[in-house]
Amino acid sequence: MLRIVIGGLKKDVIERSAKAAGGDKVQVTVTSDFDAAKKIKAGDADYYLGACNSGGGAALSVCIGILGYSNCSTVAKNGKKPNPAEIEKLVSEGKIAFGMSVEGIEEAVPLIVNSLLKKNNLA
Amino acid sequence: MENVSLIEVLVIMSLTALTAMAAHWGKAVFHDGIRPIIPEYLEGRMKRTELASISFGLSIGFIVSVGISFAVSFDLLNPWLLFLPTDILGVIATRWWMAAALGGAWGLVALFGLTGVQTVFAMLPVDIFSALGELSTPVLVAFTAFPIIAILYQFGWVRALISGFIVLIVRQLLPVVGGNFTDNADANLEQASQLAGITLPADGDFAAKVNALTDAAGNNQQIQDLISQATNNFSLGTTISSFTMQIAVLMLMGMILLVGFAIRKDLKNKVAISVDTDEESLFDARTKRIYKGIPILAGIGALLAIAANMGLMTGSEVSGPILQQAWQATGQEQADLLQSAAIADFIRGISFIPLIVTTALATGVYGVVGLTFVFPIGYLLPNPFLAGIAGAVWICLEIIALRGIGRFLQRFPSLREASDNIRSSMNSMIELALFIGGAFAAMVMAPEAVGLSLTIYILLYAANEGLGRPVMKLAAGPVAIILTGIILNVLYFLQLV
Q1: By the CB < 8 Å criterion, does B424 face chain A?
Q2: Domain housing A87
Q3: Global ipTM
Q4: Of B99, B137, B395, B494, which one's alpha carbon is 20 to 30 angstroms from that of B152?
C-alpha cells in the first residue's frame, strides 16, 4: 500500500483522481503542504502530490524547502500537457514529491499513481 | 496612464531595478516556486545558469498569459508582468549592477509597452478599452462567494449552506439598516423645512433639498444643526446600502465564519504539536538571513506603495478590475472603490500569509512584494509621499513578525489548510467571473452585432479548452476578449460588420 499525502490547491480533485487511479492500493491523506512534507520526512508517508497555478510554485515550494530540491519535481507545467514517458522517468529516478498545474491534475495524477504502483511492484 | 510623467518612469524603473537586485542577491524573489530553489544555488548545489533556466521555465507562461493580458485588460501594471521577469533577469545577471540595469530596462519596456498598446487601441473603431471595464462587476460579485466555497471544500456542504444563508440574510438586511438612516435624514430635513417655513419639492434629490434649506436657514442654529444631522444620516445610509459596502461586508462575514470553523476544529482536537528542534534552528538561521535584506526590501516596499498610490499598479487579479473603475471615477465613488480594492487585496493577502511565511522561514528568501499588504496601503493613503513611508515601515514590521506568525501557524494547522482552500476557491471564482465578464464586454463592444461578438468570444474560449488550455484558465477570459476586440476591428475594417 502506498501512502500518499496531498497539499496545495484543488486538493479535492487530486484526492478523487488518486483514489480513482489507485483504488485500494493507495491510502490518500489530504493535508497542508507543510504538514505533508513533515509526514514524509518522518516516514509516515511515502509520496506527495500537490498543485498550484504554475505547477512549480506553491505546489512544491514548501516540499523543496523541507525535503530538498532533488526529491521534488514538476510533472505538469501550465500550458503543457503532462508527458507519460517523462513521468515514468522521474518516478524511476526516485522523486517523492510531485507538483503539477491545477489544469493538469486530471491527466497527471493517474499517470503518476500508476507509475508509482509499477515501481513499487503493486500494479 | 496616457501621459506618462518622468516621476512615474523613475518610480517604475527604480522598482524593477531594485527587485532584480534583490533576486540577484537571493534576498527576495516574486515567484513562490523559485524561492525554495535559491538556497540550492546559494549553497552551491546548483549552477546560476541552471537556476536561470528553471526560473524562465516556471515563469514564462505566467508572464505571457496572466501578466500581459491583465495589464492590457485592467490598464495597470501588475506584479506578474514586472517581477517575474526581474526574478529571471536578476538570476541571469552575473554582477549586481547588471541586474540593476536589466531590471530598470524591463520596467521601461513594460511601462511604454502598455502605453503603446493603449495608444493603438484608442485609435481603433471598435472601443476595446471601455468594454474591458465590464470585467469588474462579476469579479466583485464573485468575491462575496469565495469564502463560502472555501467552507464547502474544507467543512462540507452543511456548514457551507448555513454560512450561505447567514451571508444572504446579512446582505438583505444591509439596505434595510441603510434605509433607516436615509429615512432619518428625510425626517431631519422635513423638520428643518417646517422651522424654516419653506416647502421642499417632494421629488427633488437630497443635495437640492439641502441647498434650498441652507439658503433659507440663514443664521438659525437649530436649522443648521438639523441640516448637518441629515447630511450625516444620509451619507451613512447610502454608504451602508451601497454595492461596494455589501461586497466588503459579505466577504468579511464569510471569512470570519471560515476562520471560526478552522480555529474551533483545532481547539477541539488538540493534537500534540511536535516541535522539531532541527526545524526550529533552521527557521532561526533563515530568519536572520532575511533580516539582513531589510534595507533593500524596505526600499522596494516604499516604491510599491508609491506605484499603487499613483495608480500605476495593481496588486493582484482581484483588485485589478476594481482599481480600473476606481481610477476612472472621482470623489466619493473613487474613495469607495479604492476601499473595496484595498479590502479585496487585504483578504487575498491573508490567504497567502501561510504560504509566503513558511517558504520564507524555510528558505531565508523573502517575497519581493512581502505579504502583499503594501498594495492596500498604497491605495488608501492620500499621497505618494505618505504611501512611500508607510510602505517601507510596513515591510520592516512584516519581517520582524515573520517568526511569530510562523509559530502561530504551527499551532493552528486548520488555518493553513483554510488558506489553501481560500486560494483554490478564489481561483475558481475569479476564473468564472472573468469568463462571464468577458461575455459582458463582448456585448458592449459590438452593440449592433451582439450575436457575432459573443460567438467569437465563446469560440475562442472553447478553442483554448479543446487545445488542452495552452492559455491558463485564469487568463483565458481576458485573452479571449482582447482577441475578440481585435478580430471585431479587423472585420470592421473589411466592412463585414
Answers
A1: yes
A2: 2-119
A3: 0.77
A4: B137
